[in-house]
Amino acid sequence: MNWVQAAGITLIVVLVVLYERTQLLPDQKKEKITLGVLSFLGWSLAVLLVFFPQVPGPNEVVEMIFKPLTQLLEE
């Protein structure tokens, strides 16, 4: 069942990238690279969460990183 969900996520990401890529002009190379990188990062996080749902999400990771800083600033 996990593979079906991963395939569905992959299909959706590919369709979104293909649609968005056609909206960009041919000379917008940096925007195309950014679209690819962000799409890959989002896809990899989504597939990772399908196979390992106990992995902390992005909000929890940011909280773990900045919690010591907020405690330091509150003192």
Tell me what you see in this structure.
With 75 residues, this protein is mainly alpha-helical. It has one domain. The chain has 3 helices and no strands. It has helices at residues 2-23, 29-51, 58-74. The longest helix is centred in the middle third of the chain and has 23 residues, at 29-51. The N and C termini lie far apart (49 Å). The model has no long low-confidence stretch (mean pLDDT 91).
- H-E string: HHH
Could you tell me the mean pLDDT? Answer: 91
Summed up, the helix count is 3
Give the distance, in angstroms, between the N- and C-terminal Cα atoms.
49 Å
Structural class: mainly alpha
Describe the sheet with the most strands: none
Task: Choose one word for the global shape.
Answer: flat
* Structural Rg: 17 Å
Care to count the β-strands? 0
Q: How many structural domains does the protein architecture include?
A: 1
Strand content: under 5%
Q: Could you estimate the helical fraction of the residues in percent?
A: over 70%
Low-confidence stretches: none
List keywords for this structure.
75 residues
SSE topology:
Layout: H1 2-23, H2 29-51, H3 58-74
Explain briefly what this protein structure is.
The protein is mostly helical and 75 residues long. The protein contains 3 helices and no strands.
